[in-house]
């Protein structure tokens, strides 16, 4: 990519709205600059040395009215812009439950993406046009910021905390992806591209990618090497729950509540097992927060999510058939 695109294409659903706000703010700021410059010039001429203009104290009343007037007007203007921008930006973040969920892992200095069936890519992100997408983002090290100017969207990516970005691409093509938070020596090279394709092309692209197997396989090796299997393997002497087919199931907890074992539940169960104890088990599992890196955790999660329940219903996406 060469040069700077001062007005990149508007390629997401919120882009046109954001542009309208930018133009309105430019127009308002421009009008204020003109007004101030004109007054400055006018007063400089009128009150130049030796002119006959009247000088001295302003009448008290006029002074007060002008003061109240401009304070109220600018406060109103600021609140109006605040409301307008909030509605435009937050409206797009309400999130669609059926959105395509893609995981983004940022690290010094690359962007990694993982698609629902496990297809992975680095410094590139393929998206289908016209479909709602939710990016679930985490950082493995420092704070990064996911920024796609053509989408008019930017979101910080933090270590130890998940952030989300909902969007809907509206144009096919390739759009640059930047890191917009200084994150070390090669920050300026933390670049990628977003490739928006027609939904059929995206489906074809995804099907052609190597699937989750490699990530899940990595997770399976970790499952043994960090000691999970010592308790969770069927033959273990520790009384620990069966993890096969856990993903997506309803889980009864010791406090009497029931939760769906989604990815967030699995993640919490590994990092902070004392928070949600499975009913009928002792809270003997050690917390793995600070022990597993984000990448390792994602591999283990991919492994857990890839294990089908015995007699799993078809239709559930499962992509690893091998036994634990
Ligand atoms: C010392 C034995 C032990 C080790 C080691 C261990 N676990 Fe556990 N795990 C348990 C027990 C007991 C429970 C049930 C009580 C609870 O929910 O904390 C459990 C619960 C879980 C759950 C929630 C299951 C459910 O039905 O709600 C998950 C997921 C899990 N472990 C994954 C792992 C992973 C991944 C590792 C390795 C990083 C691991 N465990 C290491 C003993 C262990
Ligand atoms: Cu960065």
TrEMBL record:
It is found in: Membrane. Residues 214-308 form the Cytochrome c domain. Its EC number is 7.1.1.9. One of its GO terms (cellular component) is membrane. It is an enzyme of class 7 (translocase). PROSITE patterns: COX2, COX2_CUA, CYTC. InterPro entries: CcO_II, CcO_II-like_C, Copper_CuA, Cupredoxin, Cyt_c-like_dom, Cyt_c-like_dom_sf, Cyt_c_oxidase_su2, Cyt_c_oxidase_su2_TM_sf. One of its GO terms (biological process) is ATP synthesis coupled electron transport. Residues 97-208 form the Cytochrome oxidase subunit II copper A binding domain. It catalyses: 4 Fe(II)-[cytochrome c] + O2 + 8 H(+)(in) = 4 Fe(III)-[cytochrome c] + 2 H2O + 4 H(+)(out). The chain crosses the membrane at residues 20-47, 68-90. Pfam families: COX2 (PF00116), Cytochrom_C (PF00034). Keywords: Copper, Electron transport, Heme, Iron, Membrane, Metal-binding, Respiratory chain, Translocase, Transmembrane, Transmembrane helix, Transport. GO terms for molecular function: copper ion binding; cytochrome-c oxidase activity; heme binding; oxidoreductase activity. Subunits I and II form the functional core of the enzyme complex. Electrons originating in cytochrome c are transferred via heme a and Cu(A) to the binuclear center formed by heme a3 and Cu(B). Belongs to the cytochrome c oxidase subunit 2 family. NCBIfam families: CoxB. This is cytochrome-c oxidase. It comes from Teichococcus aestuarii. The gene is coxB.
